[in-house]
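== Polypeptide entry ==
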Amino acid sequence: GIPISSIVSTAFITFLILMVLKASHVADVRNFVLNQENIAAQKKIIELNIEFSDRLRAFIPKVIADRLETHVKQNRLTVIQAAVEVLKPRHAEVACLFSDIRGYTQGSKDLDRFVDKSVLPEMKACSNAVEQFLGIPRKVGDLIFAYFDDNDVRTNVIRCLLAGIEISRINADLNQTTAESEIRRYILISSGTAVVGNLGGLDSSIEITALGPPVNYLSRLDELTKHKRLASLLNAGDILICSNTARVLAETGVRIELEDIDISELDLRIRDFPEVTRIHRMPKSDEIRERLITQYRKTQPLIELETSNEHDIRLAG
């Protein structure tokens, strides 16, 4: 007894409701699929970032790699975006370390005995020593250059001196334990204002380094150490520091009696730095190392330091 028109209307409304429900269900399914695809794409990007970061870590200093990782996590950036920010050239109060091997050009003619079995393991161990104290190393041939760019220049000087002591110890240990050619090097240290960061591009021209007076000073002082009158006063592994570094060291409160060398009495001048008449030699002793480590641990309480370099040398070999 129900009118045909009512049945038709009810059927039509039911059909519309079913269509709306179906459309809503299809939209939900599509949104779910798109969401899953988006999650998969984000996961892929994260995996690629991690892979790229891991590969990049193998080619850049550890300190820079850690800064990149922190910047990526805190600011949700890609590795490339973080690299641009982290490596942007900037002015900083740095401590710099400079050391090359005496007689390397002549010795390098013996690739097997001198380069492969002496220089390469020593260079690797020295680079590890720099990174152990959060320095940024750069190797050019037999030259080890590194800069330390913490916000506190006193911390930079302490780190740089400790790295220099470790390099001196590594050099001495290697010469005592190896039967191959002896390696002789001095460790030169300066401090001051420099431009640091990537001074090249983000391709094969990337150049993470420092430029400025402290770097130039070390290069010129290295030239002077080859002069016979000064070389006769030096021993392999000696650590020479500039007057500014000596002043900053005194400000840290670490008591170290430095030996002054008056180069004017030797009738010598540092090229491009005629006003400099004195350099300072830091004595080598376990007591001085312990004083510096004690000071360093005040700012880096969780630092773990090697007590011997033999492990590093063995790894480098």
